[in-house]
Structure formats: C-alpha cells, structure tokens
Design brief:
- The protein is mostly helical and about 260 residues long.
- The chain has 2 domains: about 5-100, Multidrug-efflux Transporter Regulator, Chain: A, Domain 2 (Orthogonal Bundle); about 115-255, no CATH class.
- Helix content is about 65%, strand content about 0%.
- It has helices at about 5-10, 15-25, 40-55, 60-70, 70-100, 115-125, 130-145, 150-160, 165-175, 185-200, 220-230, 235-245; strands at about 245-250, 255.
- Strands 1-2 form a two-stranded antiparallel ribbon.
- Helix 10 packs across helix 12.
C-alpha cells in the first residue's frame, strides 16, 4: 500500500495534483487506516496515470471522467471532438501571436496600418513626440467610430503632410505644445493658419477640400476638438484668435457666416 507521496511519485505528478483530482472527483479518496493515513493500491496508480495522460493530452478535466468510462467508439468520437477544439485553439493563438507581433512598435495598438504609417511619417519629418501622441490618440477615436472610412481619411492626411506649407504650420503648432495662452507667437501663428485656409478655400493647392472627407459625426468632431483643447495649454487661445479672423472649429474648420 502506498502513501499519497508514493502514489504521486509512481504516476509522475505532484501531491498537490493528486489532491486536486480528489477535489474534482476524478480519483476516489481511500479511507484512512488505523494510523490516520490514506493508503493507495495499484489500481489507484493505474487510474492516476490514465488521468495524467488524458490531462497532458489537453483533455479538459470536466471530460476526463467521461473518457475513462467510455467504450472504444465513444472514446474515439470524444477524442476527435477534443482534437477539433485544440486545433481551433491553436489557430486562435496563432492569430494572437501575429497580432502581438504587429504591436511591437506600439502605435499599432488599436490603429490600422494606414494610421501607423502616417505616424511613422510624422516622426520622420521631425514632429515632436507630444504632437504625434495627440495624433495617435485622435486616430484611435476615429478608427473606433468609423473604421471603414480611415483609409480615405488617411489618404487625405498623407497628402496634407507632404505639402511643405501645411507641414511647416503643423510643425510650428507642435513647437507650441507646452506654451501658455499668452505666448506672443500665437497671433502670428493664427494669421498663418487663417491665410492658409483662405488660400485653400480659394482653390489654391494645399489643404484638401472638406467635400473630400467622409462625413464625421458632430459628436466625434466635438470629442476630437476637446482632445485638442485638453492637450495644448494654448489651444483655447489659438481657437479664439482664429475666430477673430473669421474661422471656427479645429477638426472641422468652417468660415463664420456673417449675421443676417
């Protein structure tokens, strides 16, 4: 007769595993002997080895008892079913591995490839990290709300970032990321932004026309504008200066129509 430690050693498992199988009802617990110890016989070793083999093969413990009691045909059918489940899990884990590998750069988290490429281009062109982070977070919001439109939006953004005048404006905005509302550079920057929008509205090359954009909901525009306002201490002042020059908004900049 064997102690629980000897039983575990014979079957190649730990004592803790034996007790776990007891708690699951897979391996009956023998009565204690006169000394107060549980003693196991050879049948217990055989049963424990069979349980261990099934568990190591990936059989869920909830099905081990069924397989131990199954006939040949039922056993084969159950094994085939478990094999299908394991293959499905392997495919799912492979998809997870591919996804994890794609996240190595960090920006890929919650962003499609087009947006990741745009952020990479921003870094190549020398945009400050803080501005890139704000762009990243904004595009996460956009991709979550309108994923099918992201490729078209990113094509426009790629066009804009390659325009030297707009890129210079954008770089200068990035330089003001930490400045306060009283920074003396803000009025001149607002003049340049307004001049660029005026030129674009008149048909000059530069900022893509609003009609080229897929529609963005007012709620999302408000959320993106709020992100801009919360990210830059000078943002509210810059928007006020733009309003003085006849333009309102940031995500969706529009001319202020004169009161009738």
């Amino acid at each position: 007769m064997l102690t629980i430690g000897q039983l575990a050693a014979y079957a190649g498992v730990t004592v803790r595993t034996v007790r776990h199988y007891h708690s699951k009802g897979l391996l009956p617990e023998p009565q204690r002997d006169a000394s107060g110890y549980r003693r196991y016989d050879a049948a217990a070793v055989v049963a424990l080895v069979r349980i261990r083999v099934l568990a190591e093969a990936g059989v869920p413990l909830s099905r081990v008892q069924q397989l131990l009691a199954a006939g040949d045909e039922e056993f084969a059918a159950a094994v085939a079913d478990i094999d299908r489940r394991l293959r499905a899990e392997i495919r799912e884990r492979e998809r997870h591995r591919v996804r994890i590998a794609s996240l190595a750069a960090g920006d890929s988290l919650a962003l499609p490839p087009e947006a990741v490429a745009y952020l990479r281009r921003m870094r190549e062109l020398g945009f400050r990290d803080r501005l890139v982070e704000v762009e990243r977070d904004s595009w996460i919001l956009i991709a979550a709300q309108m994923p099918d439109e992201v490729p078209a939006l990113m094509a426009i953004k790629q066009q804009q970032i390659e325009d030297p005048v707009l890129r210079r404006l954008y770089l200068d905005i990035g330089d003001l990321v930490d400045c306060g509302p009283d920074d003396p550079r803000l009025p001149e920057l607002a003049d340049r932004v307004a001049a660029f929008i005026e030129a674009a509205a008149a048909g000059a090359e530069g900022l893509a026309d609003h009609d080229d954009y897929p529609p963005v909901s007012p709620a999302l525009i408000q959320l993106l504008d709020t992100t801009f306002l919360e990210s830059f201490p000078c943002a509210a002042r810059l928007l006020d200066l733009l309003e003085e020059r006849g333009w309102t908004g940031w995500t969706d900049i529009r001319r202020i129509e004169p009161a009738v």
